[in-house]
Amino acid sequence: MNPGPGSVSVIGMGYVGLCTSAAFASKGIRTVGIDIDEKRIAQIQQGQAHIGEAASILVITLLLKNGAMVIASDPLVIPNARKQLRENVEFTEDERSALNGADCCIVMTEWS
């Protein structure tokens, strides 16, 4: 598939690739996700996220217990994260606004 100019191709639709693709697509950028796992692609096409609980939930919980104010940005998982973290975390789909006035920025990625 030739995505064309002004588009992004992301190879690997694991946690990081899927979230990255969703972030580009949410900004209106034509995005092509590529993966060799046909079952994974079928799940994504049916709107089913194959992502388990991210380590970021644990990190955010620990930060909150220690009095931190947390602003999180991950358009793909915001609805599920809201359920788990309730009103304790501010969510934004704009990554830049999450950085405004921040003393610290933590970038969480999934590593195996």
Give a structural overview.
This protein has 112 residues and is of the alpha/beta class. It folds into two domains: 7-45, no CATH class; 55-99, no CATH class. It is 39% helix and 14% strand. The protein has helices at 15-26, 38-45, 55-65, 78-85, 95-99; strands at 7-11, 30-34, 70-72, 89-91. The strands form two sheets. The protein has a two-stranded parallel ribbon. Strand 1, helix 1 and strand 2 (30-34) form a beta-alpha-beta unit. The chain starts with 6 loop residues before the first strand and ends in a 13-residue tail after the last helix. The mean pLDDT is 76.
Shape: globular
**Gap from first CA to last CA:** 29 Å
Determine the number of helices (DSSP H or I, runs of at least 4 residues): 5
Backbone structural class: alpha/beta
Q: Which consecutive residue ranges, at least 5 long each, have pLDDT under 50?
A: none
- Provide the gyration radius in Å: 15 Å
Task: Look at the structure and give the mean pLDDT.
Answer: 76
Q: Give a quick account of the main beta sheet: strands, pairing sense, barrel closure.
A: 2 strands, parallel
Strand content: 5-15%
Count of distinct strands: 4
Secondary-structure element order, as H and E?
A: EHEHHEHEH
Number of domains: 2
Helix content: 25-40%
Widest sheet, order of strands? 1-2
